[in-house]
Amino acid sequence: MTWFKQLKFVENPLDIRPSTILIGLDEEEERLKNHIQKGEVCFINGLTGSGKTSLLKKIQEAMKDHEFIYLDAHDLPKNFNLEDELKSKKSIFDKITFKEWPKKPPVIIIDEFQETDRNLVLKIRSKWENPIQKRIKSIIFAQISHHLHNVTDSFKERIGNRTITLSPLDSENLKRMLSARLLKRKRSYADRFADEALNMLIYSSGGNPRRFLEQADLVFDFHYQRFKDINPIIKEGYKINHYAVKEILELNGINCEGFKAKTDVKKKSTGDTFETYFTENEKKVLNFLIQKGPSTYSQIALGIKIKKAMVKRIVQGLKKKNGVKLEGRTDQGYTWNVSPHAKRMTVKI
Ligand SMILES: Nc1ncnc2c1ncn2[C@@H]1O[C@H](COP(=O)(O)OP(=O)(O)O)[C@@H](O)[C@H]1O
Ligand SMILES: [Mg+2]
C-alpha cells in the first residue's frame, strides 16, 4: 500500500517523470512551435525539473504534421547513426517512390545537449544548413546550463536570440499544478495543505516544479507511513499545517529556516511579555507614558531623568517595536503615547 493508493489514485499523481500536462508555459510552447515551423535552430535551457523534457514531449504530440527524432544525448546508443535515423523517417510514399531520404525532413530534438559529441553536432548542423540537400528541418536542443560548450561560435551566432529559458514557476502556477495533480472526483487533495503550509513548500522548492512535486510527495508519504489506517489526510477538511511540513522536510534534510510564516510573526510579538520584550530604558519610558499620558521628548527626559537625545533614541527604538505611537503635536513638539499593542502586553502581566 502507498499513500496514493490509500487516496484511491492508481498511480502516483506527484510522479516527477516528464508529463505533457504543463502549466504556465504556453508562451514558451508557442515560441518553440514557431521556430520549428520556420525551420530554425532553437535552444532551450532551465534547471533540472523546470520542464524541458516535458515541453519537448508536448510539442511532439501537438505537431502531428511533423516528423520528430528525439535524442537523449545522455544515453545515446553506442552505434547511433544519424543518416540511418533520418532515413527511418521515410513515409510510405517515399518508400514506394524509392526516395533515399524522406521528402519531408524531420525535426531533430537533442535533450541533455551538453553531453553531445562535437562531431555529431557538426553533422547535424551540416544536414540542416545545406540548402540543396536539407535533410533536417529544424534543430531543437535542451540542456540545464545556458552556456554552450560543444558548439562553435558561428553556430552560436546562428542560434541568435532563439533561446528559451524555463524559469521557476510563480506561486499561483505551482498551486494550480498541485491542484490539477491531486484532483480526485472533482475535488483536489491539494486543499489538505493549509495556506502557510503551501507557502512553505513553494519557498523550499524555490519555484522548481520537480522539487515542489517531490516535497509534496514527502509530506503525503510521511502521513501515510506514520498513521496508516488512521491517516488524517483521508478526512475531508483536515489541514496539514506548516509546522508539520517543516518537520517533514527537515527530516529529509531540506532546510526551510528562511521561511517566515505570517502567523509566526504575529505569534512572536504577542507571545512576548512586557517584561522581556522591552529593554530597561524602554520600560522606563513606557511606564512614564502610562502614568502621565501623551508627552514630548523633553517631558519624558525630565520625568525619568535621562538626556533628551537619549530619550529620542529610545522612543525611535520603541516605534520600531510598535511600543509607542505618535499622539499629536504641541508647541513644544511631538507628543508620544503608549501604543495599544504595548498596552495589551501590560494587561498580561
Ligand atoms: N510548468 C510545469 N507545469 C506542470 N508540471 C511541470 C512543469 N514543469 C515541470 N513540471 C513537472 O516537473 C517534472 C520534471 O519535469 P521535466 O520535464 O523532467 O524537467 P527537466 O527535463 O527540465 O528536468 C515533471 O513531472 C513535469 O511534469
Ligand atoms: Mg529532462
Structure description:
47% of the residues lie in helices and 12% in strands. It has 349 residues and is an alpha/beta fold. Strand 8 (324-330) and strand 9 (333-338) form a beta hairpin. Strands 2-3-4-1-5 form a five-stranded parallel sheet, with helices on both faces. Strands 6-7 form a two-stranded antiparallel sheet. It has helices at 3-6, 26-37, 52-62, 82-87, 92-96, 118-129, 153-159, 171-181, 195-205, 209-227, 242-251, 262-271, 274-277, 280-292, 297-304, 308-320, 340-348, and strands at residues 41-45, 68-72, 107-111, 138-143, 163-165, 183-184, 187-188, 324-330, 333-338. The radius of gyration is 32 Å and the shape is elongated. Magnesium ion (MG) binds at residues 52-53, 111.
Distance between the termini: 53 Å
Helical percent range? 40-55%
Q: Which oligomerization state do the chains in this entry correspond to? A: single chain
- Low-pLDDT segments, ≥5 res: none
Protein topology:
Blueprint: H1 3-6, H2 26-37, E1 41-45, H3 52-62, E2 68-72, H4 82-87, H5 92-96, E3 107-111, H6 118-129, E4 138-143, H7 153-159, E5 163-165, H8 171-181, E6 183-184, E7 187-188, H9 195-205, H10 209-227, H11 242-251, H12 262-271, H13 274-277, H14 280-292, H15 297-304, H16 308-320, E8 324-330, E9 333-338, H17 340-348
Parallel strand pairs: 1-4, 1-5, 2-3, 3-4
Antiparallel strand pairs: 6-7, 8-9
The site of adenosine-5'-diphosphate (ADP) has 21 residues, from α3 and α10.
